[in-house]
Amino acid sequence: MAALTPPEKIWFNGQIRPWFEATTHVLTHALHYGSSVFEGIRAYDTPAGTAVFRLTEHIDRLFDSARIYRMEIPYSKEDIINACKEIVRTNNLKQAYLRPVAYFGYGGIGIVPGPETPVDVAIAAFEWGAYLGEGTQERGVDVGVSSWHRLAPNTMPTGAKAGGNYLSSALIAREARRHGYAEGIALDAQNMVSEGAGQNIFLVKKKKLYTPPLTASILPGLTRDAVIVLAKQLGYEVIEQSIAREALYVADEIFLCGTASEIVPVRSVDSMKVGSGARGPVTHAIQKKFFGLFTGETADTHGWLEPVENPTSAQVRAIYA
Ligand SMILES: Cc1ncc(COP(=O)(O)O)c(C=O)c1O
């Protein structure tokens, strides 16, 4: 797993501050109760300059997650979008992983945060490599079905990207790593395939793509959505339906997708080879289409690339050259 290299600055409660000054008290509500909501977003160095992938939709999801927990973010969506771009520019990053987080802060220790508990907001932007390791997007990863299931819909909503949910992800991922797998695949409360600890999942069978529906205790991933759109553009049928565990064992191809991991082929599940045990042609075609968005080979027909107008970006360099 790629380590974090600290950048110089971070956006914290409306100000650009030195990275190591963005600290909080140990009695911060979120530290005790997991009461934070956050996003993981990537900015890419495209031929037209640094651009953030689906920034507005990520911030929409951040605000949706906050709403589910009745958390009022004390900034507008526009403020947060601008702050995301600003912190990428300030840190002089051509490509970055962005982590906006809103959380119940210091000022009360009751489970239900009251008016004495502020909502703090931070936005970090830093260089971060492939989440499942360098080379995994070509080589693929080994995964195992977890004994830990995803949260049932009447326990904690997986549609909210909340800090507390990631205790479930940590159990799934840790168990997988203990067994020598790169990642764990969780089933939902009905024992149907849900998702990875931090990625959505797709199966390919006879050139058709299958993915669990939004009702399978998944996070509605923006990469998942992009894959669905791009796969259809490539002429593949994409079917959102309940997937039984055994379908994993007889799939021609499987891949995981998410902002941090991007698109990663799965070469084995529970120590059984998937297809030939190497990246399959459909996965490869979808990867090419997806990464083509950032090299300019795939047209951005949906306005997914939101420029940061980074002075170090290719576009501005070209203007001033
Ligand atoms: C549990 C979980 N599922 C799926 C995803 C993929 O979502 P996205 O593509 O929006 O990053 C993530 C990553 O954020 C995640 O944490």
TrEMBL record:
Superkingdom classification of source: Bacteria
Pathway(s) annotated for this protein in UniProt: Amino-acid biosynthesis; L-leucine biosynthesis; L-leucine from 3-methyl-2-oxobutanoate: step 4/4; Amino-acid biosynthesis; L-valine biosynthesis; L-valine from pyruvate: step 4/4; Amino-acid biosynthesis; L-isoleucine biosynthesis; L-isoleucine from 2-oxobutanoate: step 4/4
UniProt-listed Enzyme Commission number(s): 2.6.1.42
Reactions this protein catalyses: L-valine + 2-oxoglutarate = 3-methyl-2-oxobutanoate + L-glutamate; L-isoleucine + 2-oxoglutarate = (S)-3-methyl-2-oxopentanoate + L-glutamate; L-leucine + 2-oxoglutarate = 4-methyl-2-oxopentanoate + L-glutamate
GO cellular component, one term: cytosol
Entry-linked Pfam families: Aminotran_4
Gene expressing this chain: ilvE
UniProt cofactor(s): pyridoxal 5'-phosphate
Family to which this protein belongs: Belongs to the class-IV pyridoxal-phosphate-dependent aminotransferase family.
GO MF term set: L-isoleucine-2-oxoglutarate transaminase activity; L-leucine-2-oxoglutarate transaminase activity; L-valine-2-oxoglutarate transaminase activity
Descriptive protein name: Branched-chain-amino-acid aminotransferase
Top EC category: transferase
Any Gene Ontology biological process: isoleucine biosynthetic process
Keyword field: Amino-acid biosynthesis, Aminotransferase, Branched-chain amino acid biosynthesis, Pyridoxal phosphate, Transferase
Task performed by this protein: Acts on leucine, isoleucine and valine.
Coiled-coil spans in chain: none
PROSITE patterns: AA_TRANSFER_CLASS_4
UniProt keyword Hydrolase present: no
